[in-house]
Amino acid sequence: MTKLKMITIVSTSAILAVLSVVAVAGPSSNSPFASKKKKAWETTPPAPQAPAPAWAQGNDQYAQPGTAPVPDYYNVPQTQPYQAPSGGGSYQYPSSNYQPKPNDPNARYVTGGGTSQMAPVYPPTPNTYQNQPVLRGASNGGYGAQGPAKPTYQEKFGWGNVQTDFSGAAKLGFAATDRPGSGWGTEAVFDVDVRGEMSAITEGGLEYGAGLRARAQRDRFRRGFGGRVGDCPVTNPACASAVVGVDTRPVKGHTGQFYTAGAADATDTQVSLEGAYLFLRSSYGDFVVGRDDGAAYLFSLGAPSLVAVGASNSKVDYTGLDSVKTYNDASGFATKLAYTSPRLLGDTVGVGVQVGLSYAPNSKACGVDYCVEDNGVGIADVFAPKIEDVFELGLSLDRKFDNGLSAEFTTTYARGSEKTGNVVFEDLSSWGAGLELKYNDFVFGTSYLKSNNGFAGNGDYTAYDIGLTWQPSNWGYSASYGHATDDIAQLSSDQGVLAVSYDFGKFRLGSGIQYIDRKTPVNTLGGIVSQSDKATAIFIEGGVKF
Question: pTM of the prediction?
Answer without folding.
Answer: 0.74
